[in-house]
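Dissemination and training. As part of the outreach component of the grant, students in the summer workshop were shown how a complex can be specified as a set of sequence lines and then modelled as a single object. The example used during the hands-on session is reproduced here so that future cohorts can follow it. Participants entered these lines:
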Amino acid sequence: MLFRMTYTGIRVKDMEESLRFYTEILGMQVIEPLESTPTTEGKVVTLRSPSSTQLLELNWYAAGSRFGPAYSNGEDLDHLAFECDDLTDAVAELARRGIEVVFRLKEIGGWNEAFVKDPNGIWIELLQSRQKPTVPG
Amino acid sequence: MLFRMTYTGIRVKDMEESLRFYTEILGMQVIEPLESTPTTEGKVVTLRSPSSTQLLELNWYAAGSRFGPAYSNGEDLDHLAFECDDLTDAVAELARRGIEVVFRLKEIGGWNEAFVKDPNGIWIELLQSRQKPTVPG
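and obtained this result:
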């Protein structure tokens, strides 16, 4: 049997706030529009960054849905990774827009990286390849 | 600033067991080989299903690493989704191989679906489009 990974689905606490974060702050585009899912008593929307093939599904469940136990941040979702062209600028821009920055800058392998948190407390890794030289901001 | 989603990183409790699940059971292929990451006191490997572009990174951290607090299954990672050609066969095969099946079969929209758990307790959604008729198993 052949299995084909299709997308990552995260659960969000507030659909509007998360949709705003992933589209307005991180620039993702809506690939499958927001729709209600009566079976789960929830809402779902699928997103993709321009020039990326990775699909991110946002899932929201109404209070009382059996798919929606109390929200908690686990360890099983380690992080979602996003590349950017200038990490210093990116972190400064996100901080200015009120996004919580967890780690500022760090070098791992050939990458500079930083971590911020999405509105649900999910760690977002920001990556910039060190192949392209950076002018420090 | 343009951000481009690059991959989803999950944290695993036992790298060998998880690697076996995602490669031998779900058929993913190693895209970036398993390597040690001294900065995080861990190991990392990147996987992709044949004929899919979605990238899944498995992260493991040694006991005592500051990246590795006690493992817990949260609500923030809702599920990872995998398509298959025959959901009934797929569920039967996984159950036979000792994988925990959470929900057997359900219809949502144009899809049949089932849920199993990976070795870390992460929910894996199995999907089959109902566009192609299924012969019940």
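The mean pLDDT of chain A is 92. Students were then asked to discuss how this feature might be tested experimentally.
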